[in-house]
Amino acid sequence: MVKIENLYKHYGKFVALNHLNLSIEKGELFGFVGPNGAGKTTTMRIISGLLRADGGSVHIADVDALKDNQNLKRKIGYMPDFFGVYDNLKAIEYMEFYASVYGITGEKAKSMCLELMDLVNLSDKADFYVDGLSRGMKQRLCLARSLVHNPELLILDEPASGLDPRARFEMKGILKNLHDMGKTIIISSHILSELAEMCTTIGIIDKGSMVSKGTVEEIMQKLNTSNPLKIHVVNNVETAVRIIKENPQVANLSIDGPDITISFDGGEEEEAGLLKMLVNNDVQVSSYMRETGNLEEVFMMVTAKKEVLD
User: Fold this and answer.
1) Alpha helix (H) ranges present in the chain?
2) Helix (H) and strand (E) counts for the chain?
3) Which of 34, 57, 104, 174 has the greatest CB tally within 10 Å of its CB?
4) Which of the pair, 148 or 81, is modelled with greater confidence?
5) Which of 188, 223, 218, 214 lies closest to 38 in space, CA to CA?
6) pLDDT (mean) for 8-28
7) What pTM was estimated for this model as a whole?
């Protein structure tokens, strides 16, 4: 669905995107994560046709997004992080205006707009003036607006920005529903825990480059392989320590009675091999596990020290 290759953008001496590479499959709900200034909004504006790239290529559903702006607009629905609304219009009038931009008018437009407003839980606000809606309602109205031409790809830049917990919960439910309907969605956010619950794939960007991409489980696995391995033995502590020290994938070791904590660079197979070695040497192991992390720790780790997940 989306293929980005060597995307480059600079503002004077500042490099916003540094040969960014990213692919997103059809049907994914992709979470775009990164600190302020990492390149998320720049990427979204380029692939939406709102900003010119200085190099690279972007293809969306077989459309060259950098050269064929007209066909690109038919493929995507874009919701920016900051948006304007026409406060002197009723919500349904606002929706019908955007439908008219795509040549949809009359009763067909009204019927479609009401369906979209129902999809974002605003059907009871059709005759309310936009300036009387809460921020969360305005966010959902703008999401409905981006759907009037039934795009294949939704690009949502911080759609939950500034929302209270209830409004964020409602927005998350709507996005899950759209994903279940088959929409491909790119969403940027700083609310990492909600991305972890909602997205099929996460991408972490820093200084204009992708530093990690995968399912939440895959990214967490990468984190956990760099976390300490904790071992609790019932007997033969000295034997256990000798075996562990002889393992080339052990970097650091600390002992607190029967508790042994090590930095272990191996994956699951190597972990299992070490455990088997201990058991075969009559070491009784009652606990053997990695310390677990969370998505926030991944974010902090890869944006502070990029090479950890390379």
Assistant:
1) 40-47, 69-75, 91-101, 106-119, 135-145, 165-180, 192-198, 216-224, 237-246, 268-280, 295-304
2) 11, 14
3) 34
4) 148
5) 188
6) 94
7) 0.75
Question: C-alpha distances in angstroms, 240 versus 226, 245, 261, 282?
Answer: 21, 9, 12, 9
Tell me what pLDDT residue 241 has.
Answer: 93
Token digits for 303? 């944006």
- The alpha carbon dihedral of 166, 167, 168, 171 has a sign of positive
Task: List C-alpha distances in Å: 2 to 31, 187, 198, 283, 309.
Answer: 14, 14, 20, 52, 23
Q: Are strands 55-60 and 63-64 parallel, antiparallel or unpaired?
A: antiparallel
Burial class of residue 148 in the structure, from the number of CB atoms within 10 Å of its CB (0-12 exposed, 13-18 middle, 19+ buried): buried
Is the CB of residue 38 less than 8 Å from the CB of residue 14?
no
CA-to-CA distance for 159 and 171, rounded, in angstroms? Answer: 8
Quick one: pLDDT band at residue 38, thresholds 50, 70, 90? confident
Of 117, 82, 121, 81, residue with least CA distance to 98: 117
Average pLDDT over the chain reads 87
Integer angstrom CA distances of residue 77 from 38, 179, 214, 225 = 23, 14, 24, 38
Long-range pairs for 268-275 at CB < 8 Å and ≥24 separation? 271/229, 274/243, 274/244, 274/247, 274/249
241-294 pLDDT per residue, tens:
999 999 988 888 889 999 999 888 877 888 899 999 999 999 999 999 877 666
